[in-house]
Fold this protein.
Amino acid sequence: MTEIAIESILQENRLFPPSAEFAQNATIKSFEEYQQLYAKAKADPQAFWDQLAEKELYWFEKWSETLDWQPPFAKWFVNGKINICYNCIDRHLTTWRRNKAAIIWEGEPGDSRTITYEQLHREVCQFANALKELGVKKGDVVG
């Protein structure tokens, strides 16, 4: 039996840089800025994530320790209290983002739906109340 090498012809080397306007409005405005951020994260991961978590997320209680590393177990933001739903949805309800798209969904046959943060909040509340009606309580696992 002879080995046959598979040659890939699906290689793409073109670059499509963003427009100056798009880059100016981006969180990370250039590749150089990305490289600086990457170097900072690599040099001191705990300080990097500590600073990012403090700046980007709302914490109901701040953590006492950024990382508790007992190989093979890692605990991040020890004793911190956070609500991911609040950070993803609720905190936008009192800002200009309330009526901005939170989810843009496109189906296979071309159908689509855009859901704003306010609409998403309403649907999440309805679903949470349905779960409560079924007896689901805080700490329960639902799949």
Notes: Helices lie at 20-25, 31-43, 45-56, 84-88, 117-133.
